[in-house]
Every structure is written in C-alpha cells, then in structure tokens.
Amino acid sequence: MSRRKWAVQLLRRTFNRPEGLNINSVAPVSRYFGFDRGTPIDRYYIEQFLTSQTDLIKGVVLEIANDDYSRKFGSGVTKYEILHFTHDNPKATIVGDLANLETLPVNKVDCFICTQTFNFIYNFHDAIKGAYHILKPGGYLLATVSGISQISAYDMERWGDFWRFTTLSAQKIFGEVFGPENVEVDFYGNCLIATSFLRGISAEELSHEKLAIKDKDYQLVITIIAKKM
C-alpha cells in the first residue's frame, strides 16, 4: 500500500469512527468488507495463510482471475496460469468452468491458489472435482472459503453468493475428492473478529494479538490444503 493511500485511509478511520460497533446500531460501518477503511479482515487472514505456505507455491501455479497472490507469495514459480470463466479477461491463460471438467486441462498445474471462490459456485462439489482434475499428481490446492460473512453484493448480483462453510463441512467435502488423509483444514477467527468483520471494520483497526486468537465457534475464514495423490 502506498504511503498516500495509507494516509487517506487513516484519515477516514479517524473521522469516521466505528459507530457500527454500538450494539444498538443496525447499520454497518462499511458495506464493502472494510475495503474503504483499510484491509478487509478476511484478506488479512488469506495473506497470513499463503505466507505460511510459500514453499508449496512453486512450479506451474494457477489462480482465478489474476495472478497477484502467485507473484506475491510464490517461491520458484516457473509459470503463472490464470483461470477465468469467460474470454473477457485478457489476462486469462485458461478459459473454463471449474465445475465442468470438459472445459479444463488435466494434470496441468503444481499449485492452485483458489481463495474465496467455492462460496460463489452453486455446484461446488463439481468445482472441487475440477480443482483436483487440473492439478498434477503431487500438486497442492491452497483454498480458502468463507465461514461467517455478510453477503457479497457484487457477486450476488452477477453469479450468486450461495454457501458458507465450517471446518467440518470443508474436511468432509474436500476429503471426498482428495481423500481424507490428504486434506488439512484450519480456520481463523474469534467472536470479536467475526463481529468486527460483519460491521465492516478493517484489519488495521484491530491489534495483531486479537487477530491471532482462534475460537472454533467463530470460524471466519476456513483454510484448506489438499494434495492430489
């Protein structure tokens, strides 16, 4: 983030105090997940997750829509691939439907970074099979899905916002495709973080210590590491 952008967001937070934290308020501080105040809390956790898995982000790496995370967190990437549903993304190197195997190459990539995507695919079972299909044997899927979250209006209006997950549901459904022994599921979140995220508070408005606390009853972001054998 540039110094100027950081300063602008700091001023916004200073003069737009988080009134939404008042338990009697029905209005959020931000309807944009805190983007207009700083870093959305779920994005903060996604980056924490990918930072911890940089050794897996190597070889041929695939992302949805862009390759920002591949380039930021990759170590030893030999090729960047971008999957998009239609031809209207000039960056796309693969045009296909993750839920339709016939549109996808097989055994193509070593690592597939798929963040906050399965929530917006109605046939998410088929999409998980698509992720398995596109990975090379020995390749890794690094995925995140939403647990507790507001509706994404942008996605709802375009293709739909369908699902929320828990660590249990993620372990079961990804395990059905990859094998239970090849799937590692974890989460980020606690009560304060969940309510702050729903209100639209940004990560910068919370301490690192409070962001780091985990409470299994308040799963905000679910993380999945799945290996194709």
Write the layout of secondary structure elements.
Blueprint: H1 3-15, H2 41-51, E1 59-64, H3 68-73, E2 77-84, E3 94-95, E4 109-115, H4 124-134, E5 135-146, H5 153-158, H6 167-178, E6 183-188, H7 191-199, H8 208-212, E7 221-227
Parallel strand pairs: 1-2, 1-4, 2-3, 4-5
Antiparallel strand pairs: 5-7, 6-7
Order of helices and strands: HHEHEEEHEHHEHHE
Major beta sheet, strand line-up: 3-2-1-4-5-7-6
Helix content: 25-40%
The helix/strand class is alpha/beta
Please report the total strand number as a whole number.
Answer: 7
| Cα-atom radius of gyration | 18 Å
Approximate shape:
globular
Report what the structure shows.
Strands 3-2-1-4-5-7-6 form a 7-stranded mixed β-sheet, sandwiched between helices. The radius of gyration is 18 Å and the shape is globular. The protein has helices at residues 3-15, 41-51, 68-73, 124-134, 153-158, 167-178, 191-199, 208-212; strands at 59-64, 77-84, 94-95, 109-115, 135-146, 183-188, 221-227. With 229 residues, the protein is α/β, with parallel strands linked by helices. The model has no long low-confidence stretch (mean pLDDT 93). The chain is 32% helix and 21% strand. The protein is built from 8 helices and 7 strands. Helix 4 (124-134) packs across helix 6.
What is the structure about, briefly put?
The chain is an alpha/beta fold and 229 residues long. The protein has eight helices and seven strands. A seven-stranded mixed sheet has the order 3-2-1-4-5-7-6, with helices on both faces.
